[in-house]
Amino acid sequence: MPYRFFEVIDHYSQDQIIELIKKVEKLLNSEESLIEIPEGKTMIVGDLHGDLGTLKKIVQIYFRKKFKNLLFLGDYVDRGAKQIEVVNVLFYYKKLYPERIFLLRGNHEDPIINRQYGFYDELRLKFKNYTKMFQYYNYVFSKLPIAAITWNRIFCVHAGIPEGLDFIEDINQLPPNEPEISHPITTQLLWNDPKEKIDTFKRSTRGTGIKNFGKEAFNEFIERNQIQSIIRSHEKFKNGYKTYFDNKLISIFTSSSYSRRVNTAVGVINKDGKVEVMQI
What we know:
alpha/beta
């Protein structure tokens, strides 16, 4: 069965996990910061935050409904009960299907953040040499691509559009990521939020260098880059998703780690290129 790995993940040794991490690192070294998603039926997954149960459902749907591509938008760790297992499962499937499964970086794939919000503590409970494992994981997190563009010009990113980036292809010119070091444009791609009540960019309460973006900035960005729409994550919603800017931006959330009363959702790009939201 293609999802048998869920049954054996708890029995992986530290050495086996390190070997898996190193194999995924080699794969990520061959990917650019802006990856291209090939034509075909595609599922797009928002924040998981250690929600292994929802991840298993996603993998089952992916194989059962014969999707071609599976794209994750980041935030795999922190807050949930199965953070390490979620990352290991994702790495396993990336190793198995490197040209069909794609992993983007979220704002929690950062040692400054995941030291505070749960991942470091999970490693400390499960590994004797937890500081070494923390370094291993975060080093490979720093290799994760930042954004993706699909064959039908849908831009996918963890958080939002940044001020100061004219063309999405310039993402590939950003300095390589390193743990605890991030370019200002990269920071915004991983942290910025859409707001209907502003026009361009405005400072966010999330922190230094982080911004909210409005409809005018959004429309200029998609027109300049000939983008059909944007799919992002980064925020939770009761229904699992929310649309902005005349439905041209879809924000999805795929974790039930915050509350079982919050629905989980994924984005779907069908074979004909049409976009819809699927609650799972």
